[in-house]
Each structure stands twice: as C-alpha cells, then as structure tokens.
Amino acid sequence: NEQEQRAKNELAPLDVASSERYNPRALNDRCSQAFKQLKQNWPQVRAAFGLYIGMRETEEILLQPIRRAVCNAFSSLTSFAERHYEEEQRLIICAPGQEQIWLILNA
Asked: From what superkingdom does this record's organism come (predicted)?
C-alpha cells in the first residue's frame, strides 16, 4: 500500500551519510548562501521599512517576528547538525551562531 510505504519513510531515521543533499559540504554551501543573502538584503529590508513606516518603534515591532523567524531557522539547522553529525562534520557545515545572526539583524 502506498500510504503505508509513505508512513514508513516518514518514520524511518534520517541517514545523512547516504544522501548528497545532507552532505556536510552541501549544507555548508546552502548555509553560507543563506547567510550571505541575509547580510546583503537585510539593510534593504530595514531601509524599506524606514521609508514606508517612518516610525522607529513601529518598525521594530513589525520586524521582530521576522528576526525571530530568521534566528529560529539558523537555530534549527544547528540543532539538526548536533543530532545527526559528528563534531568534525559540524565544523564543515559551519552554521553561524545566534550571536552572528543577531548582530546582522540588529545593526
């Protein structure tokens, strides 16, 4: 039955060693790209909010859920790496820490 097979696949443990998608270097590439995009685009997002809203307090209130979601995404990657990879592999993945993310988002 197709539904049973899908359920088994969903419950099966993730084998990161057999998947190119979860290769530490591949995760590093995607993580680096996301971090680079964040660094490049966040100032433009802030500027757009400043232009259209114009009230610093309101801007901060509206941007806070976005900041939290971005931090949670990188935090989820870090948690995933801690559960599924050895220390050496985590060093290859090199996910940015919460401090780095907050520095960019609050600059």
From this structure: Eukaryota
